[in-house]
Amino acid sequence: MTERRFKLLVVAAVWLSFLVVSLVCAPIPAVNEPHYLAMARHYWSSTWCAGDQFLQSFPAHRVFYQTFGWLTLWLDLTTVAFLGRSVGLAILAAGWTAFATRLQRDESGNPPSSMTAFLSAWLFVGLQAVGNLSGEWLIGGFESKVIAYACVFWGIAAMLDRRIIAAAVFSGLAISFHPIVGLWHVIAMGIAEISNFKFQYINADGVRRWLLAIALLTVTALPGLLPAVQMLDAGNARTAFAANFIQVHYRLKHHLDPMDFDRLNCIGYGAVAILWLAVVIGLKKQQKLAQADWWWARYVLAAALFALAGWAVGFGPRPIQSMPGYQWRIALLKFYPFRLFDLLLPIAVAMLMPRLIKQRWLWLVGIVGLCWAMISTYAFPPSNQLPSAMRSDWRDACRWVAKNTPADALFHTPDEAEAFKWFAQHGEFVNRKDCPQDAAGIVEWNDRLRKITKWSEASFAGDQTYSAKELRELVRLAPGVQYAIVRAAVRYDADLLYANDSYKILRLPEAEPSSGRKPKADGR
């Protein structure tokens, strides 16, 4: 068998491993797939789920929608998700294999065992299943960051081979698909390069090559950078501050606020980071580190510095507004300073293990890692996951909506609404999961949630029955809403269209007038 063919088989094995773990641990639709693929569908067909607040907000990941969204015009979302995972993880597997094979050469430049990249992938999925720092993951659903991280791996592999132009192009593509992931990667790569800079290597050819690389990086990054810059323009300082506060203190605090991270996971990450650093120093003393290892170590340390800076910025008393200077601190935390290190640490450990464990034991450890990755989701299910019976009832109700209500009907849905647009093919007035990413959209999303929550608490305070008058008030607060999906246990004075053990579907009455005065004529 030729070396090229064997490498392709290794890539195929890594891809199949990633795909199986993805499908087992995150069955379609995964937690973020309704978010990304619904927006992708709406991007190409604006009449689909018309009136939905999230879908009408700014399309943050435009390159992803442009690249894959057209598939939603021809195929159902489940098929698009499966094809997207297959393609995305194939690109990721190829990038992983190129990166791992290049990094794991020994101090003399000899290539590693052909199976090392394959086994390191198993080690990685097992390590990441143990826990994470800020909720970052790689193998799961189909979304833009999977493509971005594939480009990151290709970029690192090219940089380790000193192919500066290729590294720049891959890094620019990473920014285009996911600006946050790509920009942190480019900054870490810049730090790794600058820390190894030697003036004696400067020459005219080198300068021209770097200038060309910077130009290509900029050009390939612009399709993703321009929408990101547009999103940063909130229109006014008050809206920008409100959006930052909502993101960091409420909607995304599990990703952005270090004081909200699980303490056990933080301790575990700290211990693993110290262990990784100790092993790197030990290998250095034994002169078993190549130049590529040092570049990679500096890259990982740069990501660790980003995370430490995030801790320094976010550390303080809670609630967050009691923290001195909280306005500028939350403005920095919204850029996800923890996400790169969250992913890189298990990768760094997985890349080192083949040097520390003999081949026969490495297989055993890899198999344990792969098996743990596939059973961990079932051994420790997410705390916010609906019970299986309720989930089945919810999806049955959504499918009834898809078949029996007008395509342009707008719905009020409960807080636990899961993938409503995916299964029901209808828009929602507001969805707690589907938060926009532009400042104006975030503020409007929060205002809608507050209105609905305040109405629900006030109306439910009596005899646990929502009267026709209260439902008319709901329609007034949520213009355009014609139907509602509600818990079956609560009584509603409205037309009942469908019911199962967990949910009811209601046709809502017309809105309650806001006051006794007649509305002004259009001509005024």
Commentary on this structure:
The strands form two sheets. The chain has a five-stranded mixed β-sheet with strand order 2-1-4-7-6. The termini are far apart. By secondary structure, it is mostly helical.
What is the alpha-carbon Rg in Å? 26 Å
- Form type: globular
Percentage of residues in DSSP E strands: under 5%
List the helices and strands in order.
Answer: HHHHHHHHHHHHHHHHHEHEHEHEEEE
Summary keywords:
single chain, 524 residues, mainly alpha, five-stranded mixed sheet, 20 helices, 7 strands, globular
The gist of it:
By secondary structure, the protein is mostly helical. 62% of the residues lie in helices and 5% in strands.
Question: What secondary-structure arrangement, pairings included, does this model have?
Answer:
Elements: H1 3-25, H2 33-44, H3 62-68, H4 77-103, H5 116-130, H6 144-160, H7 164-177, H8 179-194, H9 204-232, H10 237-251, H11 253-256, H12 263-285, H13 291-314, H14 326-333, H15 339-356, H16 359-379, H17 388-404, E1 410-412, H18 420-424, E2 427-428, H19 439-460, E3 465-466, H20 468-477, E4 481-487, E5 491-492, E6 495-499, E7 503-507
Parallel strand pairs: 1-2, 1-4, 3-5
Antiparallel strand pairs: 4-7, 6-7
Helix pairs in contact: 1-4, 1-5, 1-16, 2-3, 4-5, 4-6, 5-15, 5-16, 6-7, 6-8, 7-8, 7-9, 8-13, 10-14, 10-19, 12-15, 13-15, 19-20
